[in-house]
Amino acid sequence: MEKPAFEFKQFSIVQEKSAMKIGTDGVLLGAWATAEKPKRILDIGTGTGLIELMLAQRFPDAELIGIEIDENAFEEAKFNISQSKFHNRCQVFHSSLQEFHSEKKFDLIVSNPPFFDWTHKEDSSRNKARQQSNLNFEELVFYAEKLLSDKGKFAVIIPFEAEKYLLELGEKSSLFPEKITRIKGNENAAFKRSLLLFSRKNSKVEMDELIIEISRNVYAQDYISLTKDFYLKM
């Protein structure tokens, strides 16, 4: 029996074992993160392989690597990539960021990093995936800077409340915001997420906002425009 899969326009994702399922955060980052003609892309904490495959679709000349510390997620990411038409350009390694080594630098590094209210310490695989127990924000920024090429870009999606802290960490590592997109569920909602794009160049920051829904299950045009190349029914 074939495994049930979430179908996108150019690939499919099996997510039976992975603690972190397909969600809006990953789709947003995969559709939003950018660099100029990147040749090498790194996805930190690739999970099911969703973002790596989205970026493989967007950047047909790039070679991509995903790293994943959780064994179940790693196995599923490896399967999802092997079943895709992008498999010859994509790799997945079962590794933490701290133990990952690459002699070549990356032109685009992305991460939908582990975050949660870390006052909660339930020992479940989902909470391990969401908490900063295995990878905190300081380590994420530190190692991303070491792996980034001179003109490379580093993109993350984080809780809106953590935006200021990430910007401070970036500055300490000489990574500066190039673009910030703040996300809210609807017009009347508070900001929930921030998309941050860093580079080594300290320049004027492009800032905007993105609303996901106009009303329940009615998507805003900007969200449709961003994700229409991926969702089947968008």
Explained architecture:
With 234 residues, this protein is of the alpha/beta class. The protein has a single domain (6-227), classed as Rossmann fold (3-Layer(aba) Sandwich), CATH 3.40.50. It contains seven helices and twelve strands. The strands form three sheets. Strands 5-4-3-6-7-9-8-10 form an eight-stranded mixed β-sheet. It has a two-stranded antiparallel sheet with strand order 1-2. Strands 11-12 form a two-stranded antiparallel ribbon. Helix 2 links the parallel strand 3 and strand 4 (63-68). Residues 116-132 have low confidence and may be disordered.
Using brief descriptors, characterize the structure shown.
single chain, 234 residues, alpha/beta, Rossmann fold, 8-stranded mixed beta sheet, 7 helices, globular
In short:
This protein has about 230 residues and is an alpha/beta fold. It has helices at about 25-30, 50-60, 70-80, 125-130, 135-145, 165-170, 220-225; strands spanning about 5, 10-15, 40-45, 65-70, 90-95, 105-110, 150-160, 175-185, 190-200, 205-210, 215, 220.
SSE blueprint:
Blueprint: E1 6-7, E2 12-13, H1 24-32, E3 40-44, H2 50-58, E4 63-68, H3 71-82, E5 90-94, E6 106-111, H4 125-130, H5 137-147, E7 148-159, H6 163-172, E8 176-184, E9 191-199, E10 206-211, E11 213-215, E12 218-219, H7 221-227
Parallel strand pairs: 3-4, 3-6, 4-5, 6-7, 8-10
Antiparallel strand pairs: 1-2, 7-9, 8-9, 11-12
Helix pairs in contact: 1-2
Estimated share of beta-strand residues: 25-35%
CATH topology: Rossmann fold
Discrete helix count: 7
Number of strands: 12
Helix-strand sequence = EEHEHEHEEHHEHEEEEEH
CATH class: Alpha Beta
Q: What best-fitting shape do the alpha-carbon axes yield?
A: globular
Question: How far apart lie the N and C ends?
Answer: 29 Å
CATH-assigned homologous superfamily: Vaccinia Virus protein VP39
Biggest beta-sheet profile: 8 strands, mixed
CA-atom Rg in angstroms = 17 Å
Secondary structural class? alpha/beta
* Helix content range: 25-40%
- Which architecture would the CATH scheme give at its second level? 3-Layer(aba) Sandwich
The strand line-up of the biggest sheet is 5-4-3-6-7-9-8-10
- The residue ranges in which pLDDT falls below 50 over 5 or more consecutive positions are 116-132
How many individual domains? 1
